[in-house]
Design goal:
9-stranded mixed beta sheet; alpha/beta; D-Maltodextrin-Binding Protein, domain 2; 9 strands; about 350 residues; about 15% strand
Length: about 350
């Protein structure tokens, strides 16, 4: 069944691209799952006349599809969430560095901070997300929150009070990879063992399930991505989750140290893509004021472009928090170490 699905997916991509009547086009393989992105691509076409052909799927599956297609791949761009996934695509040799192409590439580099780019600008961030904490204000005191860091969650006072997703989750793997980048494997493994011993329950569910657990009194504090609180508050996930979101408070960890962990949605130009000029124009567009406003107001992420504000549902919790400047490319570099130590810790 998996093989049949893969053949159909590849065949569908070929049909989509070969059937296109647009001489001016760009072919996007997208691991982002936002219906609103289609409207954004239509705006690009309206502005430039360049048709955007999209194949959607899970990031890992799309990456394997690009590898399978090899030199005949029609894909110009690969967009996905989490820097760890972008790093894996880079290590497979799939990306073409945008350095030195033209003035557009210089503009892209000037917008995206160096720590949110791949080496030699093989890929760049499109939007940011923070991996923050959510706490129950009825059971967590201000003194306990004062200066609280990720590292502190392994301390004895949090015994039986913490919830977080499984170690197989890429967001957690990237968080742990950032700790490895800053503290080394041995210290991070000791931290992971302490965290596991402090868990209120065995890891289960997605990020919203962790927030729900805090709201329902199963735990006092959770680790989850920043945009989920806005998504839940918006009512798009139902009245139960909206009510739960109103019972918890977000907290930006490590403000007295490195700052809050930052991850990204990002994009890379593929080396075998047939439309590199259009690909660069598309990346430039995604970093424009129009596109950045569209992205943050639909995904509740943080913008890359200065002057663009997050959606009010996320901005209400503050936008001037200290952000960790650890290069996000290190999340992929240290991912193997992170996965192994998390397994040894029993996560």
């Amino acid at each position: 069944m998996i093989l049949i699905t893969r053949i159909l997916q590849v065949s569908m991509a070929v049909l989509i691209f070969s059937a296109s009547s647009f001489a001016n086009e760009v072919n996007l393989y997208s691991g982002r799952h936002y219906d609103s992105d289609e409207k954004l691509y239509s705006k690009f076409t309206a502005e430039t006349g360049i048709k955007v052909n999209v194949v959607s799927g899970k990031g890992k599956a799309l990456m394997q599809q690009i590898i399978t297609e090899g030199g005949s791949s029609p894909a110009d761009l690969f967009v996905t969430v989490d820097a760890g996934n972008l790093w894996k695509a880079e290590k497979e040799g799939l990306f073409e560095p945008i350095d030195g192409f033209d003035a557009i590439s210089s503009k892209i580099r000037s917008i995206v901070p160096a720590n949110l780019q791949g080496p030699n600008t093989t890929w760049v961030a499109l939007a940011k997300r923070a991996r923050i904490m959510y706490y129950n204000p009825r059971t967590v005191s201000e003194s306990e929150l004062d200066g609280l860091s990720y590292e502190d969650l392994a301390n004895p006072e949090w015994k039986g009070r913490v919830v977080i997703r499984k170690s197989s989750n890429m967001y957690n793997q990237s968080l742990v990879s950032s700790l490895v980048a800053n503290h080394g494997v041995e210290a991070t493994e000791a931290w992971a063992k302490g965290l596991v011993s402090n868990m209120a329950r065995k890891p289960e569910g997605n990020d919203r399930a962790q927030i729900m657990a805090v709201a329902n009194g199963e735990a006092d504090i959770a680790v989850a991505n920043s945009y989920y609180i806005a998504l839940m508050l918006s009512g798009k996930k139902g009245a139960e989750q909206q009510a739960a979101a109103n019972k918890v408070m977000p907290y930006f960890p490590s403000q007295n140290g490195r700052g809050t962990h930052i991850n990204v949605s990002g994009i890379g130009m593929l080396k075998n893509g047939p439309n590199k000029g259009n690909a660069l124009k598309f990346i430039e567009f995604l970093l424009s004021e129009t596109a950045q406003n569209h992205i943050v107001n639909n995904s509740f992420e943080y913008p890359l472009l200065e002057g663009v504000n997050p959606h009010p549902l996320i901005a209400q919790f503050g936008t001037d928090f200290k952000q960790d400047q650890t290069p996000v490319s290190s999340y992929g570099e240290f991912n193997p170490d992170a996965v192994k130590l998390m397994e040894r810790a029993g996560w």
